[in-house]
Design brief:
FAD, 26% helix, eight-stranded mixed beta sheet, globular, FAD/NAD(P)-binding domain, alpha/beta, signal, binds flavin-adenine dinucleotide, Pyranose dehydrogenase, Glucose Oxidase, domain 3
């Protein structure tokens, strides 16, 4: 049941308390409550997702993300790698978490990413072959909204059909642009081969975009894992507007520190919820390390300096943050009015598109507007990046770069543009999430650390070269006009300056409560996702992923949460 008011909760004692009703938290809540004997409470700080039109309608993404109502409204610290710039750092503040306000891109990463996690943790359960069933379990492959013939656009063998999260190909055609992207894979097959499905574990090449959309609507952990038939379960309680501050009532269990309760604020009052079996932090890669630190789990020096009584010295908490830097300067005017501007720059067509979505869940509003295809590529073997740092990718089947191809752009409303967004998906830079106050409700310090390694700058420069090469295919001639940022003739140094002044975020933060092998001298959770050295406490969300995969991170978070839920069920025989 969904509760808006703490006074309506029947009690505060449960088997499991889950902190955060986001992407991962709702998966764990759903799976645990399959057993009617298990009582679960989810504490979500944010609002309800019900009736949030800009979350439901995929094409309204650009209105949703900056909407401060549904965001924690964080800002990063100034980052030296970005010439001292800080930037808004979006995290969702409503049920469903970031799955309810992200770009809906559905990518899983490379088999090599997961095989590296298995090696790092000494647990084969995180390897590609063993994690793939969890991707399939969470997924419901769905027809696109326009029911077009999808043969040759994806591989049905690598998709699940019975899970709670709908995934589909775009449901509105941008045919001229789409044909040009596909034609490029024929004209430059060596550099940009066509890949039938980037979600097979072998993502290299150019594939059709897949998104967490079904029947023209965004699919989220709230609409999927908390769908009416699940949220109706009498053993599942979800409380909104409940911001957790810290874990309290420190005790000892089985020779280890443990916590008797979870403190949260509802309105102006503090409450404590109790878990007889386990507390699970699913507050995301910003929220989970913050709660650990507030609770006295982290580097002793940080905690002591703030006057927080240390419970366990675990220096890796909040460290090792990795995220994909993203560059949007590769944008051209185009000789076509078949672009997103035909809708976003025309109030009548915009209103018509929205009306069409409302009446039939068809038309241009059924897609996210992120793009039509995604390409993954490697740096050339002799790239100067490898002189700066050894190859950070997990293996030869994993990319260094991602390009997203979009028949639209940013900037002048109404201008017909195309964009190739470039992201480094094997970044070397690392950042952190920490606190500088003993007020548990004070915002944390977020430092994604973008471009702190020269490797990532060189990789972006290489990405610019690859994007130029992509549009050098004959099919683009006569279509492309001037670039909106003139990069012709820039020296490497000038391009580096431009990159540092214009790189943005992909919001794919992971690693801030990273898993490592049992007994390792670093890391925050063991391979079974229990916090090292603490009894009765797990973290299950994007923060446990130890190194950012070559993927937008929602699908990976779902798969990790599915396995995390199985690990809990095994541990508690429930
Ligand atoms: C703007 C943006 C665009 C993105 N685009 C994509 C994309 O296109 N494709 C993709 O795959 N990935 C994308 N991502 C990344 C992806 O969505 C996230 O990696 C993933 O959803 C993280 O899941 P999570 O469960 O770790 O955290 P979240 O989904 O953020 O869940 C955490 C939940 O905990 C709650 N919470 C936090 N602190 C507390 C507290 N103290 N007390 C109570 N509740 C708390 C939050 O409100 C939230 O609901 C994007 C992310 C963002 C922000």
């Amino acid at each position: 049941k969904l509760y808006d008011n703490v006074a309506d909760l029947p009690g505060l004692k449960y088997d499991f308390v889950i902190v955060g009703g986001g992407t991962a938290g709702n998966v764990v809540a759903n799976r645990l409550t399959e057993n009617p004997k298990i009582a679960v409470l989810v504490l979500e700080a944010g609002l309800s997702n019900e009736g949030v039109t800009s979350s439901q309608v995929p094409f309204l993404l650009n209105q949703l993300i900056p909407d401060s109502t549904y965001s924690w409204n964080y800002t990063t610290v100034p980052m030296p790698g970005l010439n001292g710039r800080s930037m808004p750092y979006f995290r969702a503040f409503f049920l469903g978490g970031c799955s309810a306000h992200n770009g809906m891109v559905y990518t899983r990463g490379a088999a090599d990413d997961f095989n590296r996690y298995a090696t790092l943790t000494g647990d084969k359960g995180w390897s590609w072959d063993r994690i793939l069933p969890y991707f399939l379990k969470s997924e419901k492959w769905s027809p696109p909204a326009d029911h077009h013939d999808t043969r040759g656009q994806f591989n049905p063998k690598v998709h699940g059909t019975k899970g709670p999260i709908s995934v589909s190909l775009n449901g509105f055609p941008w045919s001229t642009f789409e044909q040009k992207v596909i034609q490029t894979t024929k004209e430059l097959p060596h550099e940009f081969p066509f890949n039938l499905d980037m979600n097979s574990g072998q993502p290299l090449g150019v594939s059709w975009l897949q998104s967490t959309i079904g029947g023209g609507e965004r699919s989220t952990s709230a609409t999927g894992y908390l769908a009416p038939k699940f949220i109706r379960r009498p053993n599942l309680h979800v409380l909104l507007h409940a911001q957790v501050s810290k874990l309290v009532n420190a005790t000892h269990k089985a020779g280890k520190p443990a916590f008797g309760g979870v403190q949260f604020r509802y309105g102006n009052s503090l409450f404590v919820a109790h878990a007889s079996k386990e507390i699970i932090l699913s507050a995301g890669p910003v929220g989970s390390p913050q709660i650990l630190l507030n609770s006295g789990i982290g580097a002793h020096s940080t905690l002591s300096a703030l006057g927080i009584p240390p419970v366990l010295d675990l220096p890796s908490v909040g460290k090792n943050a990795s995220d994909h830097p993203s560059l949007f300067i590769m944008q051209w005017e185009v000789n076509s009015n078949e672009t997103f501007a035909s809708i976003t720059g025309n109030a009548t067509r915009f209103a018509q598109g929205l009306a069409q979505w409302n009446t039939s869940r068809t038309g241009p509003f059924v897609d996210s507007g992120v793009g039509t295809h995604i390409g993954f590529s490697r740096l050339p073997k002799h790239s100067s990046a490898f002189a700066v740092h050894a190859d950070p990718s997990p293996g030869p089947g994993a990319p260094h770069l991602e390009m997203t191809f979009t028949p639209g752009g940013f900037g002048a409303v109404g201008a017909n543009l195309m964009t190739i967004d470039i992201a480094v998906v094997s970044p070397v830079s690392r950042g952190s999430v920490t606190i500088n106050s003993n007020d548990p409700f004070a915002p944390p310090l977020i430092d994604p650390g973008y471009l702190s390694s020269e490797f990532d700058v060189i990789a972006l420069r290489e990405g610019v070269a690859q994007a130029k090469q992509f549009v050098s295919a004959p099919v683009w001639s006569g279509y492309l006009g001037a670039m909106t940022t003139d990069i012709a003739g820039l020296s490497d140094l000038e391009l580096e300056t431009l990159i540092r002044s214009s790189t943005g975020s992909s919001f794919h933060l992971v690693g801030t409560a990273g898993m490592s092998a049992r007994g390792a001298r670093y890391g925050v959770v063991d391979p079974d996702l229990q916090v090292k050295g603490i009894s009765g406490l797990s973290v299950i969300d994007a923060s446990v992923v130890p190194i950012v995969p070559a993927a937008h991170t929602a699908a990976v978070t779902y798969a990790f949460a599915e396995r995390g839920a199985d690990l809990l069920k095994q541990r508690w025989s429930c």
